[in-house]
Amino acid sequence: MKHRTFFWFILPTLSAMILFIALPIVSVFIQSLFVEHEQVLVVSESCGPFGCTPTTTVDTAATAALQEEQPLGRFNGLNTYINRSHLAFAEVGEAWRNTETFGAFWKQIINLPFYRALIFTLTYTAVVTPVVIALGLAIAVGVNNLPRFLKGPSIFISLLPFLVTPLVGSLILFWMVDSDGVIGATIQRIFNDPSLSLKASTALTWTMLIVYGVWHTLPFSFITFYAGLQTVPEDTMEAAMIDGASKWQRMIHVIVPHLAPLMSFVTLMLLMDNFRVFEPIVSFKAEAHATSLSWIIYNDLRESGNPLYGSAGATSMMTIIGVVILLTPVLIRTWRDFSRKAH
Amino acid sequence: MATKAQSRIAAPAVSTKSRTRIQPLTVISLALVALWLIIAAFPFFWTFWGSFKVQSDFFSKTDWQNAIYGVNTIRQTGSPFTLEGYHGAWVDEEFWRNVINSGIVVFFTVVISLTFGTLGGYALARSGRRYAFWLLMAALVFRAMPHITLVSGYLLPFFEWNIWGILPTTIIVLVAINQPFTLWMLHSFFLNIPKDMDESAMVDGCTRFQAFRHVIIPVMWPGVITTGLFSFLLAYNDFAVTAMLLSSENETIIPAINSFLGTTQVEGKVMYAVAAVVSATAPLFVLILFFQRQIVSGLTAGAVKG
C-alpha cells in the first residue's frame, strides 16, 4: 500500500488516538509536575479592649484569582512522586532504619497509600490470573465432554458474569454477601456469630474481591480454551489412546501443549484486565481494606471541590510505567516474530 | 451384545467414544461444570427475583427464605410481587433520562468507532511496513492502560475549554479509548480476507478506495458486527470515563446506579438500585441471547492467530 493511501485510511483513527490517548499522557505528565496552589493567607491584627491579636484569614478572592491565572498550580518538579502519598522515599528509609525485623518493616510499608494500592493490585493480578487459567481449562474440558444439546446453554450461562457491567456485577455479589443478604446471613448462622461481616476484615475483603475477579473473568479463559479444544488434532489423541495413555496423561501431554499458545494469549489479556481492577472496590465499598492503583487515582480526582490533579497525575504515570513493564516480554517477542517474518 | 462387538470391530473410532465406563475424572469434571454454572447463574436469578420484593425481604435478617416467598412483601403490598422498586427507579428517580443518555452515547460511540476502525484496520492489514507494526504495538500498550489514568489527563483541559460534562465529549473520548481494541480486532479480521480480492480490482483500474468500497465493504459485515458488539459492551459498561466526564444531568446508566447508592441510604430506596441494576442487565441478556455465536467468535478471534 502506498504511503499516501495508508495515511488517508489511518488518519481518523490515528488522530483520535493521538488527541485523546497520546496527548493526555503528556498532559498527565505535565500535571504531575505541579501541585495545587496554597491558599492566600492574609494576616491582620484585630484589636479589642484587651490588646491586639494577629488573625489569619483566607483571602478567597486572591486564591481564586491565582487559580484562574495558573490553573495547573505551582511547579513542584518530581516532588509529588516522592512524597508520602506516592513513593514515600523518606518514610520508607525511616522505616528501614527504625525497624528490627522484616515483618515490622512490612507493616509500616503497607500503611503508605501508594504501596498499599500497589500490593493489592499485584496480589489481585497474581492470584486471579493463574486461578482463572486453571479453572477455565478444567471447565472447558468438562463442557467439551457434555452432550451436544447442553453445550450451547452452558456457554450462554457462562457468558453472563463476563459480559455484565463490572460495577453492576460486583453490586449483585455485594448485595448477596451483605450481612443481611443471602450469603452473608447464612455465613453468620453457620458460625453463629451475628457480628461477623465479610466487610469488616482485611483478609475477608481481599478474598471477596478475588472471588469476584475469578467469577468475572473465568468465562473468558473458559471460552477461549473451549474454542482451542475444538482444534486438537484427532490423530494425536487417537495415537495417544492406542499407546495406552490415560485420560489424565492425554490431558497433560497432548491437550495442554496444544493449547500453550492460547494460554499465553489468555495470560496477556488477563494481566492487562486484572491490573486495572477498579469497579469492584467502588461497588464493595472496600476502600478501608483494599485499594488499587486505579482506585487511588479516582479518589484523588473526586476529592470534593479540590481535585488533586498533581497527585492523580503522578500515580497515573507510575501506573502507565507499570503497564509497560508488564507488557515488555510480549512486545519483545512480537518484535522478534515480526523481524523474522520481514527478513 | 453381539452387534456392539461387531460395531467395535467395524468402527473403532466410534466405539472408543461410546465406551460408557464412568471414570472418576469424568465425574469430577462434570461436577465442576455443574458447580460453575450454578455459581455463574445464581446471583442473576436471585437478584432478578428479589427485585420484585420489598427491602425487608431481599435483605432479610430473620430468614433468607423470605426473599423467595416474599413474606413481608405480601404484608406490605398485598401481593408476593411488587413493582415498587422499578416505579421508584424509573419514575421517582427518573432513570429513563439516564437510559436515553446511555442510548445516545452507545449508539454514536459504536458507529464512529466502527467507521474509524474499519478504515484503519484495513490499512494496517494491507500495509506490511514497519510503521504499521509500530502502530499496532502502540495500540496494544494503549489498550492495556487503565482508562482512569487517561481521565486524569482530560479533566483540566476539558474544564479550561468548557467542554466538560456534555455527551459529545464523552462520545469522542470513548471512541478514542475504543480504537486500539477495534483496530486490533478488525486488523486480524481483514488479514483473513484474501489480498487477491482487492488487488485484482486494482489491476482492473480501481483506486485503493474504490477497491475498498466495492470489494471489501460487501464482505466485511460479519467482522464488523462482531467488533461492533464489543464496542457496544465497552461503551455500555464503562464507568471510569462516564463517571468522571459527565455532569449529573447527563449521566449514563452505570454512573447513575453508583450515585443512587450514594444518595439512597433511606429505608426502601436500596430496592430502587436493585431494580436499576436488573434493568441495566436486561439489554446485555438480550444481546447474549441473539449474538452468542458472534461474541464467542470475537473472543477467540485474536487468540487463534496467537
TrEMBL record, chain A:
Organism superkingdom: Bacteria
tRNA processing is among the record's keywords: no
Major localisation: membrane
UniProt membrane topology term: Multi-pass membrane protein
Stretches assigned to the ABC transmembrane type-1 domain: 118-330
Subcellular location: Cell membrane
UniProt keyword terms in alphabetical order: Cell membrane, Membrane, Transmembrane, Transmembrane helix, Transport
Membrane-traversing stretches: 7-30, 117-143, 155-177, 203-229, 250-272, 308-332
Membrane as UniProt keyword: yes
Pfam family, one: BPD_transp_1
Similarity remark: Belongs to the binding-protein-dependent transport system permease family.
Name this protein carries in UniProt: Sugar ABC transporter permease
Organism: Leisingera daeponensis
UniProtKB/TrEMBL annotation, chain B:
Keywords: Cell membrane, Membrane, Transmembrane, Transmembrane helix, Transport
Topology term for the membrane: Multi-pass membrane protein
Pfam families recorded: BPD_transp_1
UniProt xrefs under InterPro entries: BP-dep_ABC_trans_perm, MetI-like, MetI-like_sf
Annotated ranges, domain ABC transmembrane type-1: 99-289
Chief location: membrane
Localization in the cell: Cell membrane
Top-level taxon of the source organism: Bacteria
Transmembrane segments: 25-49, 104-125, 132-155, 161-186, 215-236, 270-291
Similarity comment text for this entry: Belongs to the binding-protein-dependent transport system permease family.
Name used for this protein in its record: Carbohydrate ABC transporter permease
Native source organism of the sequence: Leisingera daeponensis
